[in-house]
């Protein structure tokens, strides 16, 4: 027993320390840090709202709270561009894109989760790779294709390349793969064919994933700028993000209407965020880096 | 049998499942081919032609001409260098600072953490165009709040977006503003996921606060941090595109242009399809190579805490 | 009416065989248990019967119909899965009714069948709950209900009790047995638990490494294990097995530290390599020197109703069951007697049972001494 290292005397006696209290100082410093970060993140959004409500003659005031309020900026913005029409366009664009990306995603993901088939890994990688292709790389051929179809300057053209997304396929495939295989087999034993298994067994159990994905796609599409920028010719057939840009010109900026239009463009997303805050954060954290 | 009469048995043969997966895959695959894979091939083809995008004008085969001329273009190298500056400028904002904040604030009480979480996430859902508009307003040299405050404490107004020396950093800061809260949330979540018994074990072993951070938390956060680094390298310059386009148009003097903006510039401002496509091919190959190396690195240097 | 016949059934994954030609006939109404260690192919076999795995070669027939490529749902089989496999988003009622809904049964008929099944399984008050709100045993009963409601020709059970705690497992075992008496449907039950296997089976099928080792009643399998594998697998503590040689005149000789010891006489030819098996409960252990094989007690496991002594004999370990008692035996020398009539002989090359009687080696059998008797 003399060589037993576990029983050897302790190499060095440490001084006995008291259990340190959770130091209030550290927590306070943490709060300060988070408050500063919060101000940094929220203030620009607040400033947009505040500026949009200032009357034209008080536009350049620096008081935190508008001393007098007016909706003039909104009236001006609405007169300058067809904001209502553009908001509707954006809504159609976002809703249709979301619905189709979910649909094509569910079907494709089901194929990956349900079967092993020849080339399945290859096809899966081929889908995954598209997630990494920068849109700028394919924009010219995409544009030419839309032009050939005679669809320039239309909402349909905006939607077409957005009917499918690798992200939706990959996320749904992941969720479906972790769904217990036995339950699917039980459904087969009970006589359900694939179509039924997908819609009656899989989909009802993936509601959480689907909802979170829907939020993510909707918000990303709502905020989409680049593709509409390529296609838009007229304000009537464009989305709100393009509308905002119209108040920023080389000759000068109409700050008031710009802030009003920005506020209107952000409102739907902010409302969704206020109502579904937890789900929105979660769905972005799962997959929303792009 | 105890229950009731046998149901009539009609026995179906097992259907060949060989084509079924393809049926389910077809909508997605067709769309991906039409909108991504075929365009890739088409971009490759167009990169060997000279064409101005007008349907009636001829497509002239020019061989490698587009490529050699792009490589000879100072603007191309400037954009490439700027792309690097964007990536390295965004990295601290998207990874380092959030990492420090996440570690420093991990023992805040649950309730206040939730409130902070809700607030610092807001920039992530704001549209890039809106962010650009708001920052343009805040940073306006004449009337913007920031410059008014700078003047208030005795500084000269800064031309954030029109001075070639500051413009690129301004765009980087705005890109970082969109990301910083989100990255902090991701890293905080990873930090909160660290098994508390590991920290307790380290305390039993006599580790100090700093030693726990250095030996337990940082190594266990490294895979999440590495993921953010990789995403920033791959996508950082893309994230900036909207701000460049809305705020500076690549200027002044090309100082804010990056490779993505250059592509757009070639393709749609100057209408030279050949140049645009050649630049797209170069970007795609370069991007692919970088992505390949980075994902190999992730595979190699990540370990999982199970 | 619904005999289940498997003939020369084979399965391989990517060319690697996992079932090497299985031949089994299960008569209508029988309760058959397939038992074997994990990886022996028993679950694969069951899933092939269900139609969830493709058949590589051979045939599966139920009654007169070959089922090889009939849809799982149309084979007349119902399956109870290991993890219950209930539909999480449906209530108990919807779960049980799902196969009927797919079969497009009218609502009224569906309801009455579900009620009937629920009554048998004592699930009536849980019909409107979801699986997540049920205990393990209740979920298991719902899974059974979903199988029963289809009135299948054949019930398939894939280790259905392995996720339950010990007490519930015994309870459900009895319930399944009672249910079978009542419904009298052919049942195939897969398990790795030998107690479950012994207690449930009319017919026991022991499998190992993709082959059937033995088919027989539980008592048969226990009393006359057909191979070394079965001998070692069925029974706890496991049967003691050691190599032995046949000496001159058919003498059965095993190695002991003191040299070869004759333990019986057989009609086998001199030099036949054999393995001798003896169950721990048939071993006689004596503290009196001279009788039998000398050994040392290593340690004693107390089981309450009995004790198991683990003895070392040279470099071999031998288990012997003792009646309950308090003697301190650990570390003591003992002498083991192997009663000839309780010995099992196996061909050491093929592992197959050799059915020849073993007679006593000498006329005088040493008096057995069991402590505290």
Automatic annotation (TrEMBL), chain C:
Highest taxon of the lineage: Bacteria
Main location: membrane
Keyword Oxidoreductase tagged: no
GO BP, sorted A to Z: carbohydrate transport; glycerol-3-phosphate transmembrane transport; glycerophosphodiester transmembrane transport
Record's keyword terms, sorted: ATP-binding, Cell inner membrane, Cell membrane, Membrane, Nucleotide-binding, Sugar transport, Translocase, Transport
Domain ABC transporter span(s) in chain numbering: 4-234
Membrane topology: Peripheral membrane protein
Protein name, entry field: sn-glycerol 3-phosphate transport system ATP-binding protein
Origin species: Rhizobium soli
